[in-house]
Design a protein that fits this description.
Length: 386
């Protein structure tokens, strides 16, 4: 099962989840109870200390055979105070880009991956009418980081930003809250403005959407279509005319006539409690292609598990779904696994998604067999026989 020539193979991370010490972000403040939000089990602290250890992390990915590394730059480091830009932070991320290129990795840069500067959050965040202006100013300031970068993701999973934007709406046991319309509008505006800025710098721009593989039972097709509209489809539709779109898929959501259905009792679950369902990525790709009509990159896909052999099984199944999309004529151009490292999963280090483990005391890296397996896939540009 060969993949097209030039297909990208890599892994992804997010700054707050691996860097450590991101003290000027809203998430750091929330972790210590200084901003509203549900209490978290564990603060991020030093995380994986990848702020300092990124050369080793990149070398491990490249040495295994991968050719692309998607990482985010942290707005709260670049603009820790409203209107003040840290030249040191800009230089740090420029060094990251250069290091990736030096070891043979194409850097894909994400400009916003969930976290915000604390000043932005305290002034209303994405609820503020000034949000798009502030984001555009940050993107302009970050342009030196993007020199020589081809692929730029403006905002990671804007649909998740929107559905979690109303603190008064509780998170359901299954499914997602609806998107907040005003926040969605501001995110779309910010994205489109960022696309123009990034294109002006010579890069190709898109954003990534957390696709949910909504599957209606017989008779629930209209319910599923309505359910997915504010939670996914509006964000895919907003990508029309972009250079590419990112699909981030992990599991499915079955929809009945009354909405999301519980996960079957006998279904295998991951460490996040999600149903083990590798084909989800194929459904996300097909919906993105149908609605946006632009080239697709899988910018995140993986599973939280302590059983690395099961991670390989999941990834093989996901790649088979990706390959089936390509055979059906969908323009899929790359697969980036989530995650390069076991990381901070927004309150806990317990759900392990990584191709690389690390020691919580010494930060020593321990590549898993799944990293070597995915590297072999990348070198062959093909899925091996089971």
């Amino acid at each position: 099962m060969d993949f097209p020539e030039g297909f990208l193979w890599g892994a992804s991370t997010a700054a707050h989840q691996i860097e450590g010490g991101n003290v000027n972000s809203d998430w750091w403040q929330r972790e210590w109870g200084r901003l509203p939000g549900a209490p978290v089990e564990t603060p991020s602290g030093d995380a994986a200390d990848s702020y300092h250890r990124y050369p080793e992390d990149m070398a491990l990915l490249a040495g295994a055979g991968l050719d692309t590394y998607r990482f985010s730059i942290e707005w709260a480091r670049i603009e820790p105070e409203d209107g003040w830009i840290s030249r040191a932070a800009i230089d740090h991320y420029r060094r990251m880009v250069a290091t990736a290129q030096d070891v043979g990795l194409q850097p894909m840069i994400t400009l916003h991956h969930f976290t915000n500067p604390v000043w932005f959050a305290r002034e209303g965040g994405w609820h503020s009418d000034a949000a798009a202006d502030r984001f555009a100013r940050y993107v302009e300031a970050a342009l030196p980081v993007l020199e020589g970068v081809d692929l730029v993701c403006t905002i990671n999973e804007p649909n998740m930003v929107s559905v979690l934007a109303d603190p008064e709406v509780g998170f359901p046991s299954i499914g997602l809250p609806p998107g907040v319309p005003a926040v969605t509008d501001r995110l779309v505006d910010a994205h489109k403005r960022a696309v123009g800025i990034v294109r002006g710098a010579g890069a190709r721009a898109g954003w990534s959407v957390a696709t949910q593989a909504y599957q209606p039972v017989e008779g629930a097709e209209a319910v599923a279509a309505d359910y997915g509209r504010s939670r996914e489809d509006v964000f895919l539709d907003a990508a029309k005319g972009d250079d590419w779109i990112g699909v981030q898929a992990y599991t499915r959501t079955r929809i009945g006539t009354d909405g999301p259905l519980p996960i079957p009792d006998d279904a295998e679950r991951t460490l996040t409690g999600w149903e083990y369902y590798p084909p989800a990525v194929g459904e996300g790709i097909r919906n993105a292609w149908a609605r946006a009509g632009v080239p697709v990159y899988v910018t995140e896909n993986g599973m939280a598990t302590a059983d690395d052999a099961r991670r390989i099984d999941y990834t093989r199944g996901a790649l088979q779904a990706v390959r089936a999309c390509i055979e059906d004529g969908v323009d899929v151009r790359g697969y980036l696994h989530w995650s390069a490292l076991d990381n901070y999963e927004w309150g806990s280090f317990a759900p392990t998604f990584g191709l690389i483990a690390w020691d919580r005391e010494t930060f020593e890296r321990h590549p898993k067999p799944s990293l070597a397996w995915l590297g072999d896939v990348a070198r062959a540009n093909a899925i091996p026989a089971a």
